[in-house]
Design brief:
Layout (H helix, E strand, L loop, with lengths): L2 E6 L3 H14 L3 E6 L2 H10 L4 E4 L8 H11 L5 E5 L3 H10 L4 E4 L4 H12 L7 H11 L12 H11 L4 H8 L3 H15 L4 H10 L7
Parallel strand pairs: 1-2, 1-3, 3-4, 4-5
Helix pairs in contact: 7-9, 7-10, 8-9
Length: 212
C-alpha cells in the first residue's frame, strides 16, 4: 500500500533532502511538495495524504496558520511540524493547534524517520527533551506571557532577539517592513517591553534563543 506524504517547506533543497531520506527509509512512499500555504492547500484538497510534514516559517503566512485551519477542515489529517525554530515556545503551540509531533531541522536523520513512522502509526511524537520541557511548563507561570503572542509575533520576537533588523526580518518572512514594524509595536505593548534589548532578554529567559 502506498504511503502518500506531503512536504511543505519553502526551501527546495530542504524538500529534496527530506524526500531522499524518506524514500530510502520508507517503502512504497509517494511524496508531494509545496512551497507555501496556497500550494499546500491545493495539494491537500486535490487528493488524500497519509501525513503532512510542515515547516512553520513559510512566505506570507505562518505554517501555524495552516495547521490551525487543517484542525478544522481536515481534523483526521496527521501533521508533523519540522521547523528550524527551537522546541520551546513553538512545539507546545504546534501541539495545541493539532500537530501530532514536532521535530527541529537539526534533528538526526534516524530520529526524524522515527517521528514520521510514529505519526503514521497513529501515535504522537515528541523528543525526550520536549517531553521534559512540557512537564516543566505545567508548573512554571513564567511561560504565560508567550501565550499572549500570535504566531507571527512569536517569530518576529525570536528574529529580533537574534539581532536582525526589521528590514531583514521582513525579507525572511516575505512581509513588508511596515508590517514587521507593526508586529514589533504589538510585542512591546503585549509584553510591556520597550527596547530590543528588553525583548532579547525576554527571549533568552524563555529559551526562544540560545543565550550564547
Amino acid at each position: 500500500m502506498t504511503t502518500r506524504i506531503l512536504l511543505v517547506d519553502d526551501h527546495v533543497v530542504v524538500r529534496a533532502g527530506l524526500a531522499a531520506l524518506l524514500r530510502s527509509a520508507i517503502s512504497d512512499v509517494e511524496l508531494g511538495e509545496a512551497g507555501d500555504i496556497s500550494a499546500a492547500m491545493r495539494a491537500i484538497e486535490a487528493q488524500a495524504w497519509a501525513l503532512v510534514v510542515l515547516d512553520i516559517n513559510l512566505p506570507g503566512r505562518s505554517g501555524l496558520e495552516l495547521l490551525q485551519g487543517l484542525s478544522t477542515t481536515h481534523p483526521k489529517l496527521p501533521v508533523l511540524v519540522m521547523s528550524g525554530y527551537p522546541e520551546h515556545g513553538f512545539a507546545s503551540r504546534s501541539l495545541r493547534l493539532g500537530a501530532r509531533g514536532y521535530v527541529t531541522k537539526s534533528t538526526a536523520a534516524d530520529e526524524l524517520v522515527a517521528a514520521v513512522r510514529q505519526v503514521l502509526a497513529g501515535r504522537r511524537y515528541v523528543s525526550r527533551a520536549l517531553a521534559e520541557q512540557l512537564a516543566e511548563d505545567v508548573v512554571h507561570e513564567d511561560v504565560e506571557p508567550l501565550e499572549r503572542l500570535s504566531h507571527r509575533e512569536l517569530e518576529v520576537l525570536r528574529l529580533i532577539a537574534q539581532g536582525q533588523s526589521l528590514k531583514r526580518i521582513a525579507a525572511e518572512l516575505n512581509l513588508s517592513e511596515k508590517t514587521i514594524g507593526t508586529y514589533r509595536a504589538r510585542l512591546g505593548e503585549k509584553l510591556g517591553l520597550r527596547s530590543n534589548v528588553e525583548l532579547t532578554r525576554f527571549a533568552i529567559r524563555h529559551r526562544l534563543i540560545d543565550a550564547s
